[in-house]
Write a structure and sequence with these properties.
Oligomer: single chain
Number of helices: 9
Number of domains: 3
Shape: elongated
Helix content: 55-70%
Number of strands: 0
Strand content: under 5%
Length: about 180
Amino acid sequence: MVISARNPVHSVLFLIVVFVNAAALFILAGAEYLGLLLLVVYVGAVAVLFLFVVMMLDIDFAALRSGILRYAPVGALIGVVLLAELIIVVGGTVISPEIAANTAMPMPPLSEKSSVQALGDVIYTHYAYFFQVAGLILLVAMIGAIVLTLKHRTDVKRQNIGQQVARTPETAHEVVKVKPGQGL
């Protein structure tokens, strides 16, 4: 429903439902920390940010739908590549089940380390660069959302700080003689 919903606000709301379901799956699997982290970070911050950005954008749906056939071949190619990757992953685990056992990092027993410590060790040692890249991608997305929603309207007065600082007492005020009966 995130992809097929026509209204972008509904898509973001369905995305929140997906995050809540994923958090519930983590909690059921025994990874309470990851489940709560998913709720706090993704539902509490990212999805709400997406919702506000989508609501602030003035999207012209007619213009979006007019050029859809032009990008259909590229979208179909990307879909075929993703389908091939999924078939390779699922087919590899069906043909050789020991592949999945060899690729997973073993978790130490809970008596040695807690799940939070083990997760921190993995994230900040083996995947430190990926963690930094994910933060950079979020930063770029936030700046992009700000740039997309920033509109300079000509009918709105804007503050010119340089002009305000350069004022002199002579230009700061103006004395106007109002004739009787013509004022407010």
